[in-house]
Amino acid sequence: MKKLMMPVAGLVVLLSSCVSSKKFQQAQDDYTVLNNKYTQLQEDLKNCEKDLVKASNFLQTSENNNANLKEQLKNFKDQASNLQSTNTQVLGRLEDLSVLSSKQAESVQQSLAKLAERDIYIKDLQGAMARKDSLNMALVMNLKGSLGPIADDDINVEVDKGVVYINISDKLLFTTGSYDVNPKAMNVLEKVATVLKNQPNIEFMVEGHTDNVPIKGGALRDNWDLSVLRATSVVRTLQTKFGIDPKRMTAGGRAEYVPVMSNSSASGKAANRRTRIVVLPELDQFFQLLNPGTTAEKPAGK
Question: What is the pTM of this model?
Answer without folding.
Answer: 0.54
